[in-house]
Amino acid sequence: MNGAESLVRTLHGAGVDVCFANPGTSEMQFVDALDRTRLMRCVLGLFEGVVTGAADGYARMAGKPAVTLLHLAPGLANAGANMHNARKARSPMLNLVGDHAVRHLAYDAPLTADVAGAATPFSDWVRTATSAATIARDAAEGLAAAAGHPGRIATLIAPADIGWEEGGVIAEPVAPQGPRPLDAAVLDRAAALLQPGTLIFCGGSVLEDPATLALLAGIAAKTGADFLAPTSNRRIERGAGRSDIGRLPYPVDLALERLAPYSRAILIEAPAPVAFFAYPDRPSLLLPPGCETLQLADFDQDGCAAIAALAEAVGARPAAAADRPRPQAPQAGPITLPALGAAIAAALPEAAIVVDEGVTSGRDIGTASAGSPPHSWLALTGGSIGIGLPMAAGAAIACPDRPVVSLQADGSAMYTIQALWTQAREGLNVTTVIFANRSYEILKQELYRVGANPGPDALNMLDLSRPDLDFVALARGMGVPGRRVEDAAELCRAIADAIAEPGPFLIEAML
Amino acid sequence: MNGAESLVRTLHGAGVDVCFANPGTSEMQFVDALDRTRLMRCVLGLFEGVVTGAADGYARMAGKPAVTLLHLAPGLANAGANMHNARKARSPMLNLVGDHAVRHLAYDAPLTADVAGAATPFSDWVRTATSAATIARDAAEGLAAAAGHPGRIATLIAPADIGWEEGGVIAEPVAPQGPRPLDAAVLDRAAALLQPGTLIFCGGSVLEDPATLALLAGIAAKTGADFLAPTSNRRIERGAGRSDIGRLPYPVDLALERLAPYSRAILIEAPAPVAFFAYPDRPSLLLPPGCETLQLADFDQDGCAAIAALAEAVGARPAAAADRPRPQAPQAGPITLPALGAAIAAALPEAAIVVDEGVTSGRDIGTASAGSPPHSWLALTGGSIGIGLPMAAGAAIACPDRPVVSLQADGSAMYTIQALWTQAREGLNVTTVIFANRSYEILKQELYRVGANPGPDALNMLDLSRPDLDFVALARGMGVPGRRVEDAAELCRAIADAIAEPGPFLIEAML
């Protein structure tokens, strides 16, 4: 057995059964091993950012890592932005990256570059395999590093010869590290802080467990403390019958206003809230000066256990979810932002997976859909636009029986538009709604903060018209049917229809 | 004057008048400075790989760097693959990358990551600006580092506050380092090696100067030595009336066969020829064992001067170019690879710029077009597919009066397909010919080297059908008109027509 086959068999033995791939020549022995063993579903992306974005979506919904297969340093660089987003989500991911055969690295071949250097900024764990006999063990350890609490980005670099050489040895699975225990004294202090004027700021696994969210609401009801989630999160389980959790607004002034009332903050699987960007006249940290801040559970601790312990300490019980009305379809008329939110909220079916890269146009849809049937909400966690379409593909592969609704800003969609082809090839039930405002609207808002009166050169760099993008044509070019919609009521029907049909569909909503 | 404006004014003073950009919030003060000063043509790319690929194409044709404007570590990662290609081409490039304000870096904001770490694998020069007073000087030094001999990739990281703070000081231009002098003793030894059985292997600036290529042919005629260029090069000036230079074949066996006759090799602005990839049963270095190899001019030396000195030493004069027949248009019929080459060769007009990312289907077009009117030939130098469409855009911006013909493999086109939009927005006269064989054909060939009998999973990862890509629809989606062609004679006419019309056009050639 060669090194490549030992690696594939080891990963499969540890539970990996999907490989998102964009391989090159230096990975052909892994392609061959995947082919001969037939142990994994192999999903091709036409660009590496599709591969890692899909792997993130898969991991968020499957609760375990897929493996990605990437090609040398430039291919890894192409994958980097969505590795970054996954890393900020604390999603588990194991990247397998080929490199030249060891003897070949001495020469300046055209594709020679520093693979480990390219991996390091976007990985928590990087290792280069050194022999066919040990590469499977490396993979098992990389998988364990990825699959711990929190999830991590592990990158294993595999020189070609180590894949093709004989002497591979299948390795036993390695148990991932569980969460670090909570500190009892910190718990006591946190419980003592629970009172009006205290904010419980929590993310990560807390948001994925409806029972914990109900308990959190119970703590709030019992103590008068408030609770809030970060702006963007790996996954929130929400919708009718579930406790809803608000999210910190993105715009810095709104965020400051939202946090102004608090003099105490308890952090659970979340950092102290920080502005997305710095501004000359605004603070970086968003809690009011002097706010007492306590990290009850860090990313490597169990936030759900922390909330359970808090509830026990104060004698809180799960709160019943508020009775929220089912969202109503919008009236016929232009697709204003409120109408956009209403259309999506009304169209969401039971068990939908919502992928949110709506950016400016999508900001109010979360509020609008709080009463939609229960659904999962996956967001852009690392701020690097271009994960929505791939993440939708990966989520659909993880959950073939659940419809995926992909809320997608137009500018952001163009970074990884190639993901539509993967959606078509794999026949995924993804309904993409493009929010076509034809600009980098978020940057226009930021520019007006910097210069009072931007001129044509600046606006030119933030404008996506001239020529207008035609997303229906782009989708058709990759085998995804679609249509353009200009009316809000029609949009709601179009989304519902597309969800009901199998396979991908794209709706370009003209804002 | 703030730091951003001092930087823009300094770069403009040193000759930079184009900025390829994909900015984000942390670059808004640079966008604002570009807007207020109006000193540079700002060209927006919808993805960062478009930005750096275009910058490379621009530099190859303008002979000087543009500046790129990129956003934080993930944006830089997206730019990395084409920085890699440009670096292997020794093209000059200055990347300006924003980072968070210095005080903001202490917090784990969503977009925080190691910008310098992401820059290093794909840059020759990396610096982080430290004050508004010195950022312009940093930029002048970065530009000089980029614009030396050879060209280099320089990356200047600009924290947002250093751009927005007052106190910017315009810096004087810094002279780039010229080539390191040749070694007289090495020149003597090289001249003594010139005889039958000797190969002059030369790249870089040698290929850009028709007079030097004529002198090279004269040396060969006088001494019996042969000459050859690397497989892929920054730019070759070629065509009717010019000395033609062969290129080393890509497939390793053909390359070995081509180099087998030589017992002596003189290297000029080229490394000893090395296989693109390593294979279990093939050498990495391609010259025959025992071949005496002499580096007459390294990348940092002047290859043209080396050839002039060799000619003088042996008393050679420029050779007249062979009289090559003007290529004839192919007969009507299917677009076989020979017909493809003939169609392109016959359609090429005077002064065309050919961008070659044709990969397997394009291999014979160079030979077919040796008798086409004089033209420039730009190739994929770093092996990382996805530079063709952007490079064509950048070349067209550098040379607005010359038609650009972009020879583009279908699989490779999908990595940076967004470049078509930039071609449309800027109204560039680029004729893209997509070689639609609907597979990663090069990888299929490599796979057959690894596994004798690939199964469906492997072929699935190398196949681009199911669904077929429709490049005409993709182009239309980005404002570029196009058509599909299935006949060789029609293809030739379609290319000639598209070149004659201003603005971009895409032809999907069905192979």
From TrEMBL, chains A, B:
Q: Which residues does the UniProt record annotate as the domain Thiamine pyrophosphate enzyme TPP-binding?
A: 373-508
Keywords associated with the record:
Thiamine pyrophosphate
Q: Which InterPro entries match?
A: THDP-binding, Thiamin_PyroP_enz_TPP-bd_dom, TPP_enz, TPP_enzyme_TPP-bd
- Domain spans labelled Thiamine pyrophosphate enzyme N-terminal TPP-binding: 1-105
Q: Does the keyword Kinase apply?
A: no
Question: Which Pfam families does the entry mention?
Answer: TPP_enzyme_C, TPP_enzyme_N
The entry assigns this protein to a family as follows: Belongs to the TPP enzyme family.
Give the protein's recorded name: Acetolactate synthase large subunit
Q: Which organism is it from?
A: Plastorhodobacter daqingensis
